[in-house]
Amino acid sequence: MTDPATTDALENQFGLADRVVNEEALANSIQRFREQGITLPTFAQLADPSTFDHDEKVGDADPQGPDARNLWRCHWYNDLQGNRVDVPEHVVLPSTLTGVASPIIVVFGDRFPMITAHKVLAAYSCFAPRVVTGQFDPTVHRAVWPSTGNYARGGIAISKIMASRGVAILPEGMSQERFDWLDEWCANPEEDVIKTHGTESNVKEIYDACNELDKDPGNFILNQFSEFGNHLGHYNVTGRALGHVFETVRAEYGLVGRELELAAFTSATGSAGTIAAGDRLKEEYGAKIVADRGARMPNNARERLRRAQHPRHRRQAHPTDPQHREHRRRRWHL
């Protein structure tokens, strides 16, 4: 039987808590959100946006603006103008183009609000569970978002529209466009944008800065490499969306007499959170592939190795490790 102290430490370390751990912090969030009219979508609603009325939740919110209603756009069912679509937008690459016999489906990740990148979903997935369980208090904490760009931008966007102060940490050599965007979104860029040495490969320096910031209890580090919410959000939201796209394409090919099976999922990842979508696809479609071909559907990712992590996350830094998967099944009943 797991020691309660050990369980609490894991929950605090990886964002695994499935209960309120600080009633006062949650009350502060509720009061602030109520005063500013902020409502939070659940993972289930973002996974299937047909479960809520788009016009009622989003209204006339500018999809690229700092509007809390854009939380209801943090899903795959948007077009470039921020309107709702029935199926996530995608293209099918034919064999005449790719030279591969199987059609390849490409799903667009630039339909998300505010930063036009799916990392805004990852940021919300990491942040919302910390808020609703009372671990993050917007009246006390600063949300610190370390990354080389899009996750930090997504975190700044999410924390801003959730009435919280966000801090972006990224290498000084990243694109000027990213820094221009941060200057516009941060109330005090001189304090809230921390530039570390190097470029995209200099990740250690980012977490060195996190180590210093973590000495202040008012700073809350949201490390995408170890936040369970990153895995959970992609498993539920991205995984379902990709499955929906595949089912749609399979039905279209069925009309011309061609049967399709899902053979592989490939993602270019930064924190490996998107791999969780592959876990879901394997669970939903892998059984048939096992029966027909004697091998499970591969889940491939082009992963940049990033070993530098916050001290709290060094022993086990990834939520897809077996211990975390078992914890997910046991505590979240997945």
Task: Throw out a few tags for this protein.
334 residues, alpha/beta, 4-stranded parallel beta sheet, two-stranded antiparallel ribbon, 13 helices, disordered C terminus
Q: Tell me about the biggest sheet?
A: 4 strands, parallel
| C-alpha end-to-end distance | 21 Å
Poorly predicted parts: 287-296, 301-320, 327-334
Rounded mean pLDDT is: 86
* Beta fraction: 5-15%
Protein model, in words:
The radius of gyration is 20 Å and the shape is globular. The strands form 3 sheets. It has a 4-stranded parallel β-sheet with strand order 5-4-3-6, sandwiched between helices. The protein has a two-stranded antiparallel sheet with strand order 1-2. Strands 7-8 form a two-stranded parallel sheet. Helix 6 (119-132) crosses helix 11 (228-254) and helix 11 packs across helix 12. The longest helix is centred in the C-terminal third of the chain and has 27 residues, at 228-254. The protein contains 13 helices and 8 strands. With 334 residues, the protein is of the alpha/beta class. It has helices at 4-14, 23-36, 43-47, 54-58, 95-98, 119-132, 150-161, 176-185, 189-192, 203-213, 228-254, 275-293, 322-332; strands at residues 90-93, 104-107, 142-146, 165-171, 193-196, 219-221, 265-269, 299-303. Helix 7 (150-161) links the parallel strand 3 (142-146) and strand 4.
Topology:
Layout: H1 4-14, H2 23-36, H3 43-47, H4 54-58, E1 90-93, H5 95-98, E2 104-107, H6 119-132, E3 142-146, H7 150-161, E4 165-171, H8 176-185, H9 189-192, E5 193-196, H10 203-213, E6 219-221, H11 228-254, E7 265-269, H12 275-293, E8 299-303, H13 322-332
Parallel strand pairs: 3-4, 3-6, 4-5, 7-8
Antiparallel strand pairs: 1-2
